[in-house]
Structure prediction request, 689 residues.
Amino acid sequence: MTEPRRFDSLVWAGLLVFTLVCLALRDQAAWLVSYPTEWVIPITGFLDGLMDRFVERSSWFFNAVSAGLDWPMRGVRAVLHSLPWPVILTVLTFVAYAASGWKLALFSFLSLLYMVVVGYWAESMSSLALVVMSVPLAVLLGFAVGTLGYFSYGAQRVIVLILDLLQTIPAFAYLLPILLLFGFGPVVGLIASVLFAFPPMVRNTMLGLAGVSPEVIESGLMSGAKPSQLFWQVRVPSALKQILLGVNQATMAAFSMVIVASIIGGTSDIGWEVLQAMRKAQFGESLLAGIVIALMAMMMDRTSAAFALAEKAESSAGDSFLARHRYLVLAGVSSLVLIAAAQFVPFLKSYPQSWEFYPAELLNDGVNYIIVEYAGLIGLIKSLSFFYLMLPLKIGLEQTISPFSWGFEFTATRKTIYALLAVALTLAALYRLGTRAAITAAFLLIVVFFGLTKLPWPALICMAAYLGWQLGGMRLALTTVLGLLFLLLAGVWTPAMLSIYLCGIAVVLSFVIGSGIGILAAEFDSVSRFVRPINDTLQTMPLFVILIPFVMVFKIGEFTALLAVMAYAVVPAIRYAEHGLRNVSNDVIEPARAMGCTPWQLLWQVKMPLALPVLMLGLNQTIMYGIAMLVIAALVGTDGLGQQVYIGLGDGDFGVGMVAGIGMAIIAIVADRMTQAWSKSRREAFGMD
Prediction:
């Protein structure tokens, strides 16, 4: 063993001993496990007072902004509602065809037709109006901020920090200041959508401008371009593909805010339909409405991505206007014909209600049948998972094992046997797998016995700080310590540990299951084709809708929340695993095959090590998705920071909601930085950087 690794092992062993000492002293020094409330700094009160003063002094400005955005919002909605449904269907189908051909056109046509047939056309147009308004605003704001970040390194550092907060603080947390400043109404939903949608545009703008080749810049300078010409005629066109990808991501982010915007906007749109059905636990109704949002998001995603990735077609100088803009002309002519026809053909103007097909009751009956017929199996799965996996990790075997849960008492003799088994397993891991595996096994065995939420906070902070130092140096260690101290001093340490416990289980299970599916998808095209639409649906389906089937089957509780978080967080694990394995260079694969590697050896000894950095990025995104879903999961009765966010939102308590939101952002940022640092070290180890 090298000297640095020996030192690391000694430090980790020392931290484990320190943890056990703190646990041994917990009866004499309870503050080691439970941080005293009298030591908490009253941050929430300070934030409440700050926001109250800010609202008093600036309400006139925000009222003016609200009034300025209200009339164009109404105008866009009025236009979309006034046009006959075949007109919008035709225009968007032509746009899809121009972007990517007949397959996307057919998908768009059928998606829009679904909205008509199920009777959600008017609500869909209200949601589309929100997106039509929010995306251009988000794109313009994101482009301006991204350009500032590109030209100023100091501004870039501040911008990146703000973007990290905006993208990791739950949307419900920053709804509080928006509500206090703008009040309820459609404009508030619009502003919330813009704030959520513009960060991807900022990042892609900075990335695109930074990626412009120096040779291209030199050519522009040699041509005598002025600074403004150099920017608009050289840099922006060269970075256009990356910028358009930012537009694509901003569009998807805007769609993901449709339901949240409905909560504070109160408009009769598709998000409101989902919300109402969810409140009544109506699975069929919420699913049918949620599919509308998923279809709209997938349609816009595929169309905008196709435009972003398309190569610019060469056009002849002699081409007529009709040849250059034939799809636009066809869409315009078709629209005029349909508008005229709608004056004489009633069903073209308003789709008859008697023609609608709304199978909500069939879906509800199907779920009820599953609940009744498989009640025993459902109860068994829930009980086994809760008592044998979740509770031991939450509060430890020490408090979980009882005659009610496990059928016997956890006597002193049984505790001694567990301790001896833990020592034996740790020594076996040391002998067979090495020091790191032994330390990991020892830590997990301690967690299982005492519970994550019962571990001493000084030990956890020291462990996290040293892990940060190992992965990213002093800066990451300091960031980790400051973040965890905020959780401690703000009085949200216990809710934070509850969030980490639930999210941690969901992330591990999602990453293992998702990576397994991703490996199969990379090896078999048929699996990839089957999985892709499921991934698209899970990623674009409103998070509220994901909760409904789990609530109906497993009722309220932490197990239901776990399944909902997993359903959302498994998607990036699948995508990144497939992407990483499919993009391993053939220059490596072919020599391995020539050496006689079997498919199994090729996968595990060649592809997997080289794809590991990409898989780690998948882990990073799985963590981000899991944290994002925690707030939604709090609706089904979980404790933690997500519940604190809802308490703040429900009581109008800015301080409580923001402290909890910032706490979730801290967890997300620390996890993000650590996984990125680990991924970077793996890339460097394989010579990929």
Notes: The chain has a mean pLDDT of 84. The two ends are 26 Å apart (CA to CA). Residues 389 and 505 are 9 Å apart (CA to CA). The chain is about 80% helix and 0% strand.
